[in-house]
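[SOLVED] Need 3D model of a two-part complex

Original post:
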Amino acid sequence: MSALKNDRLLRALLCEPVDITPVWMMRQAGRYLPEYRATRQKAGSFMDLCQNPELACEVTLQPLDRFPLDAAILFSDILTIPDAMGLGLYFSEGEGPRFERPVQDVAAVRALGVPDPEQELKYVMDAVRTIRRELDGRVPLIGFSGSPWTLATYMVEGGSTKNFAKSKGMMFDDPALMHDLLGILAESVTRYLNAQVAAGAQALMIFDTWGGVLSPRDYAAFSLAYMERIIEGLVRESEGRRVPVILFTKNGGQWLGRMAESGCDALGVDWTTDLADARVQVRDKVALQGNLDPCILYASPERIREEVASVLDSYGHGPGHVFNLGHGIHPEVDPEHAAVLIEAVHELSRPYHS
Amino acid sequence: MSALKNDRLLRALLCEPVDITPVWMMRQAGRYLPEYRATRQKAGSFMDLCQNPELACEVTLQPLDRFPLDAAILFSDILTIPDAMGLGLYFSEGEGPRFERPVQDVAAVRALGVPDPEQELKYVMDAVRTIRRELDGRVPLIGFSGSPWTLATYMVEGGSTKNFAKSKGMMFDDPALMHDLLGILAESVTRYLNAQVAAGAQALMIFDTWGGVLSPRDYAAFSLAYMERIIEGLVRESEGRRVPVILFTKNGGQWLGRMAESGCDALGVDWTTDLADARVQVRDKVALQGNLDPCILYASPERIREEVASVLDSYGHGPGHVFNLGHGIHPEVDPEHAAVLIEAVHELSRPYHS
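Solution:
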């Protein structure tokens, strides 16, 4: 594979010195880009797009052709694993992802197998290989997965939920069954992420979108414990470099100290936590990724620059910061505003690395 | 008015000794009760129910007739103030509350008046008076309002939102306009709550449902500052007793220390924060109300009792704890499970007060 021309992201994730703060955006390949919408239309459904390696590669690279981003992230969905388990993923307008066959009892949990990433999820690995080839060493490629707890909520609920009635219902009423489900998912995620690394992913991120709806005790037992198990099982070196792992629990600001002990290299942080406080919490043990509120991209370029400056200042001097939004970029955002953000990060971050 | 027969709630909110931990449940008058559903059907729409003092009183008292709760809470909606401002509140199936005339520019903010609680919101004050009469001193009555920031999000968005695109857009792009709007709302909420006290409310709660979607800096400036302004303007004594004020920011666990400085008497805490940690954060300056995950009510009676014991234990010994859920009770919950919760709190809390 081509030598990496821009390794700022990998260096920052390992708290190594960089010239300027690297930046990428969650959902940077997405609906706010007209070229994404065009490819999406060409592909058919959202899952058709995910399952077509050439088109998944095309949308992965689109934001990199527009902006001087420091990373690419695999275009895929967090629900590929449950889909590969045979749950029948589909997307219904206005309702988000749904499963034809939710997992709500012992029999359904027992029937679950661990998918072979190079079989049932080969389309993801093919996308990783295609993207790496097309990236040609411009920037590193981030692979990812949903966390076991996050995947379990969708699988038990049969889709998105506001109350987590069924998934928390299972957790509280039959914790052993929920642990069985989470164990199968942890094993599946481990294999899935290791296969992504084998296919060419150079960093990994675990999205724990729904860990933040748990109590501290339940977060530790039902979400963090399984992410730790995954991290233990991950291949941490590839192509002669360490493969950094980023853990991101949305609304996990109260637990950053514990998360930093998980064995990961970096933590994603949303905007409800100040990066200065987060840095104290993790005692510079891990790098931090974040944390601009994506709604700031609705404001004027001047305000966006001010807020970028404020986030850079809250992290302060020294290595270990990857600039990102605290959540995915919204579909209504003007791409020119994303350009302002990225330029501002590169321009304004230099003094923090001297 | 009748002498108060059970003042545990008022005493606990002021950190005074009690025999057992008082308990009430957010949305205790609600859809999980068949008798509520019957009254709701009789009333017509949800707002018809809120605007009918006799029926609002009827549903307020329903849970008290079933369970030995230690407080009643006024049955009403958090959006009565914007409705009284002329925004045209309505409820659409599946979408939640909507406003016919959202507030999205300078002209719309300038056109807003501060409602006179005994005129435009007289139906609320009539409900308070009716409930007090019918309560006959059984337990204290809690009055409430939404926080200015929470009301502003609905008013600017025109209803519920996931992204807060318009409300945060205004906050980031035209902060002066958002401050104008919040100033009018703070004045309106102050008058509204003082009128509830004059009509008979014996404790007050401010629901800051959406303060937790802000950054720490923006929470302080756009939500907490206006709640502090309200608290400064509240009448704090009535019928010869202090009227305690409870502040509840959902997902505000990271800011409890700051909230405790607001002049309030108690903080609502959701289940993402351990009460022992919360108590350290607020240094016993204020009482704490919470914090059982309402999803625990889907579990078996045995599990509910275990979890009640765990919450009581996390708060520990001494006064200043009001038991509650960390969020409203869900509509699908079996009322018998609520009974188990309430009985368990009373039974298991005695040793913590000896």
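Edit: The longest helix of chain A spans residues 175-199.
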